[in-house]
Each structure stands twice: as C-alpha cells, then as structure tokens.
Design goal:
- The protein is α/β, with parallel strands linked by helices.
- The protein is globular, with a radius of gyration of 16 Å.
- The longest helix is centred in the first third of the chain and has 19 residues, at 28-46.
- It has a single domain (2-227), classed as Rossmann fold, CATH 3.40.50.2020.
- It is built from 8 helices and 12 strands.
- Helices cover 36% and strands 27% of the residues.
- Strand 4 and strand 5 form a beta hairpin.
- Helix 1 runs antiparallel to helix 2 (28-46) and helix 2 (28-46) crosses helix 3 (62-75).
C-alpha cells in the first residue's frame, strides 16, 4: 500500500509522475521525463534548507544522474554545487536476501572540500545499501553540516534501517525528503508499486552489470566544462 507524504498529498503533478514510474507500460522516454520532473519537485523542497552561497555536493548513482539528479541540479537556487556520481554493483551475499552489498565500481567526483550540505538522491530507497555505501564513502572525504537524503519513493523501513548504520554524530545531520512510502515487496524482491521495477531496465540501460558501462551525459558535460 502506498502512502503519500505531506509533500505530495496535495500535488497532483507529483502523484501523476509517481504513477507513471509505477506503471510498467510507461515508455522509457516518458519514464525518464517523470524522474526529471520529480527531481525538480524535490529541489523546490531543498531550496529553503540551503543558502545561496554555501558549498554543496550533490551525489547520485549513474542511472539517476541524467534524469533525477539533473532535475535537482537544474532547479536549485544555489549554483555552487559540485557533483559526485557512483556506479554501484548491487548484489546479494550467498543468495541471502537480507545481506545485500553495493560496492562502488567506478566514480566521478568533483571538488568536495568545504562542503556545507551534502545531498544524496536516489530514485527509490529500499534496502538502503547503495545510499549507505555512497554516503559512507563521502563522509570519509567531507564533514558536512547537513545531509539531505532525498528520493521520490522510500520503503517503509528504509529510514530507520539507514539511521541504524551510522553513529549519532552523523545521524543527527540527516534530513529526509520523499514523496511516497510503500510497504509491500513482490516475490521478485521489488517494492510495490515502487518505481515499477529496476530503474536501469526501465530506462533501457540494461541489467545491473551492463548499466555500469553507461556514462551519464551530465558527467560528460560537466567534465568538458571543467576542462575548458
């Protein structure tokens, strides 16, 4: 069963785009556009929590970068934003669905020093292993004052599970922003309705290994801009 948060209860556009993600018949280009719109909607909620000049790092996975991540980036008031993109390989350990890891196989990270706010975005947070891995990596590099964890959809226990992975000095910096909470999981271990399956497959990026060959256009554009 899905429950909308206060951020989405009265926003028909958010609800409509969440429904597009959940619908397995939604074409890839429409699915991608829905993620971009939801990214922009998340940015509207992030803006009051940041200043116009503070140093920000926006972190996302490679499959989220060109759509959800770009939508957030395009709509933040602050322009002093550096990007961190991670390619993760999510896998079960010894076929134990309770023990899941998501090692980083590749990364693109811009300057992170003096970061005041770290924003971690993900299309859906379920087991939280990807967010946990990427967040742990970044916390070892920077010491932000605030950590915003944002997603269109979260599974009901994800927030508490993620909180338990970090000591109180880190956990107290967390603030969560999301539009919907789902509490069902299919036999295929997919959140229902969630985002209608695996994001990389819905976007046409291939399976969990093939998708890690994809270089987001956002990364290419930012890398080219920095080299000029």
């Amino acid at each position: 069963m899905r429950r909308y948060t206060t951020f989405a209860q009265h926003d028909e556009e958010i609800q409509a785009n969440l429904s597009l993600l959940a619908d397995k018949q939604t074409r890839a280009e429409i699915y991608a556009n829905a993620l971009n719109i939801l990214g922009k909607k998340l940015a509207v909620l992030i803006n009051p929590k940041i200043t116009s000049s503070e140093k920000i790092v926006l972190a996302c996975t490679s499959e989220d970068a060109d759509w959800l991540g770009k939508g957030i980036l395009q709509s933040l008031w602050n322009t002093n934003i550096n990007l961190a993109v991670f390619w993760n390989l999510r896998a079960k350990v010894a076929d134990d669905k309770e023990l899941i890891v998501a090692p980083i196989v590749k990364s693109y990270i811009e300057e992170t020093s003096n970061c005041k706010t770290l924003i971690i975005c993900k299309s859906i947070i379920y087991t939280s292993c990807v967010v946990r891995t990427n967040l742990t990596f970044l916390i070892n590099q920077i010491n932000p004052d605030k950590i915003l964890i944002v997603a269109p959809v979260m599974f009901k226990s994800s927030e508490s599970s993620l909180n338990q992975e970090f000591e109180s000095s880190i956990r107290k910096k967390f603030e969560y922003i999301y539009f919907a909470i789902d509490d069902e999981v299919s036999n295929e271990d997919e959140v229902i309705p969630g985002i209608g399956g695996n994001i990389y497959q819905r976007l046409g990026l291939g399976d969990s290994q093939i998708k890690n060959k994809y270089i987001p256009q956002l990364v290419k554009d930012r890398r080219n801009a920095l080299s000029v």
